[in-house]
Fold this sequence. Notes:
Mean pLDDT: 80
Number of strands: 0
Strand content: under 5%
Radius of gyration: 22 Å
Order of helices and strands: HHHHHHHH
Low-confidence stretches: 21-26
CATH architecture: Up-down Bundle
Oligomer: single chain
Largest sheet: none
Shape: elongated
Number of domains: 1
Distance between the termini: 20 Å
Helix content: over 70%
Amino acid sequence: xxxxxxxxxxxxxxxxxxxxxxxxxxxxxxxxxxxxxxxxxxxxxxxxxxxxxxxxxxxxxxxxxxxxxxxxxxxxxxxxxxxxxxxxxxxxxxxxxxxxxxxxxxxxxxxxxxxxxxxxxxxxxxxxxxxxxxxxxxxxxxxxxxxxxxxxxxxxxxxxxxxxxxxxxxxxxxxxxxxxxxxxxxxxxxxxxxxxxxxxxxxxxxxxxxxxxxxxxxxxxxxxxxxxxxxxx
Length: 233
């Protein structure tokens, strides 16, 4: 390791003292599991919408009398509307609030689900706005979810928690595709209601257990994060 500028040495007494006095941060308990549940639930809802509802929507529109070309054009227009979301989300997350940006993206997703329900129950109105809201909400959510997760947990469990949330974002899609393979896709109104329940739950839990991470020193999350601060190292 000396080739790369690293040298082994014995720890100093000041370092041993600082390590012994390091504050303890609980890695278990209601706050930990509540936060992990909230973010995992949000990730699962993203998967159900992105890999399920949005893929089933064109077929539902065709069954309502829309042409295949119109359905495809709808998704293209909605995606175009949602494109600036990436820049707005990055600005809001870094300059405004990380926590409330995530909560806002979940709220926009819920608004899109309500729009789909309105279309299904009334058979009136343009589907462009609900689909655009869903695309905007889900793209904003997934863009912020993993960075926010990484900023919300101590280093020793950061990889596990971020991996769990990432896996949940794919799990929702696996469930949706499994239903599609078995031709067991329920009516879109029922799908929207089923997805809305955990999405509302995720909104409440993130607002309750989520912590603001913008401008925060990640070392504050770790029991030993500031261990060597007093040593001048």
